[in-house]
Amino acid sequence: MRATPLTPLSDEFALVPDAPAAPPGMAAQPGTPYDELVAFHGLERERLVLIHPGSHAAAPAWPTERYAEVADLLAADGWQIAIVGDALEPERTGAVLGAMQTAALFLAGTMTPETLTRLIGDARLVLSDDAARPSPVAEARALGTPQIALDERHGETTSDDVAAEARAALARESAAHPGDPFTLHTPAFSDAA
């Protein structure tokens, strides 16, 4: 038996992100856009891996399916995967997410360059097509974040090769650790007993 009846949804509604909850007795303090991004998406910096499939070259260097394969392998290990990229590349970034078999955060086109720089600085690894400036790989190098730039590879690079390199880089990060396989948290209705 349901404790309270469900009300019908109106034809016009908007999805609005919840504000981060404040501890009891304290008013919520507005945070920086970065803090809000972390809180809203539940980013876990100690296990965050950024996938940036964009390229400054005329043709992207690596197929989106291979990005998805590497992301799936790392997600199965317990790393939190976030797809980042420019708002101008929705087909490419969306194709990686669509090809994945596991959950990932889709942050492409959702943040300012300053917020992306902070995210790169807090990530445990950045995987991207190219290292040209400006790029997430160039930012990662400047910030000391481990990175894999696929355009620096010669010849055919397999998903397994890149996943092995990513796992080795993540193993060298003392502050990094995978958790349980990452799942997205979605709200659900619950029935009263």
TrEMBL record:
GO annotation, cellular component aspect: cytosol
Region (Disordered): 173-193
GO MF terms held by the record: ADP-heptose-lipopolysaccharide heptosyltransferase activity
Regions that span the bilayer: none
GO BP term, pick one: lipopolysaccharide core region biosynthetic process
Annotated SUPFAM superfamilies: UDP-Glycosyltransferase/glycogen phosphorylase (SSF53756)
Keyword annotations of the record: Glycosyltransferase, Transferase
PANTHER family (UniProt xref): TETRAACYLDISACCHARIDE 4'-KINASE-RELATED
Protein name per the record: Glycosyl transferase
